[in-house]
Amino acid sequence: MPTVALHHETVRLKTPLVTAFGDVRERDLLLFELTGADGVTGRGECAPLTAYDGVPLEVAVEALAVYASILQGFDDDTPGMRMLDACRDAADIPVALAAVDLALWDRAGRRAGRSVASLITDDALDAVPVNATIGAHDRAGAATAAAAARDAGYGCIKLKVGVGDDAGRVAAVRAAAGPEMLLRLDANGAWDVEQAVATIDALSPAGLELVEEPVHGVEGLRAVRERVAVRIAMDETAEDIGALIAGGADAVCLKISRCGGISGLLAQAALVQQGGAEVYLASTFDGPLGIAAAVHVAAALRVQAACGLATLEHLDLDVPPELAVRAGSIRVPTGGGLLGEL
């Protein structure tokens, strides 16, 4: 009979991140540990961000308590998907289900002495390209951050927009980063269709890789996409599975927490690819286990676009060396489970 432990940690951001959906100053990380009768422990993580995913911390904690009681009724030989489905039937809270899913994958990898990426496919990438993220700095601050990203070897910068002085900050980032840097904008649904079209047209001379979630909703995204030359990516709207194949975007940003873990993200990635759109991954400023899970999945899917996974450096915690960003990429942890611990 498995045993379950839950630990709560609040981690502050070194500098608040200002976005169109609100300021992010700290992150609540719920560590979920599942230990089998064989003594092997799998670890998962729940990182609710209420302003983004609408799930309050107390709701996530309550769901994890329900899951713990359910999981303790199974044995070590129960298939992981059966255990996950039982938890989902009791409380369908994706950000909380992600903790269970990650723990099951981590435990499976540790038992097999293999990385999670290698459990998914035999042809995973060795490293995943990642982007630097710049929040709502003023022009000088944005330029400084862009120059630092350039010097650190990043090939792509994501700049939060829809928060004021977009034109000035985009120009400052482009000037500091240089002409070769890919520049991605993320509006977090700040605009309506007309605002999005006008703003994207005005900013496009800076050379944009894509604009992520300029508006919310698949119809709005489709309307913007039809009227601008820049590629449009879907993020928050991707919560609606039907929207994934509705032709509303050129690319879709998927996140471990919103997909309910690795298993859910793999399923949604298949839908995205079925619709002909590109897949890339990002975090909601998750902790180390959430980032590790996303790195394994991105590697298994052989994602070529830069992923928004270089976010641990924004948190006031020690970054595991396995997840350090080097020359704009994160190497896939080897060994057993999510972080290569045998």
Automatic annotation (TrEMBL):
<dbReference type="InterPro" id="IPR013341">
    <property type="entry name" value="Mandelate_racemase_N_dom"/>
</dbReference>
<dbReference type="InterPro" id="IPR013342">
    <property type="entry name" value="Mandelate_racemase_C"/>
</dbReference>
<dbReference type="InterPro" id="IPR029065">
    <property type="entry name" value="Enolase_C-like"/>
</dbReference>
<protein>
    <recommendedName>
        <fullName>Mandelate racemase/muconate lactonizing enzyme C-terminal domain-containing protein</fullName>
    </recommendedName>
</protein>
<keyword id="KW-0479">Metal-binding</keyword>
<comment type="similarity">
    <text>Belongs to the mandelate racemase/muconate lactonizing enzyme family.</text>
</comment>
<keyword id="KW-0413">Isomerase</keyword>
<dbReference type="InterPro" id="IPR018110">
    <property type="entry name" value="Mandel_Rmase/mucon_lact_enz_CS"/>
</dbReference>
<dbReference type="InterPro" id="IPR029017">
    <property type="entry name" value="Enolase-like_N"/>
</dbReference>
<dbReference type="Pfam" id="PF13378">
    <property type="entry name" value="MR_MLE_C"/>
</dbReference>
<dbReference type="InterPro" id="IPR036849">
    <property type="entry name" value="Enolase-like_C_sf"/>
</dbReference>
<feature type="domain" description="Mandelate racemase/muconate lactonizing enzyme C-terminal">
    <location>
        <begin position="140"/>
        <end position="231"/>
    </location>
</feature>
<dbReference type="Pfam" id="PF02746">
    <property type="entry name" value="MR_MLE_N"/>
</dbReference>
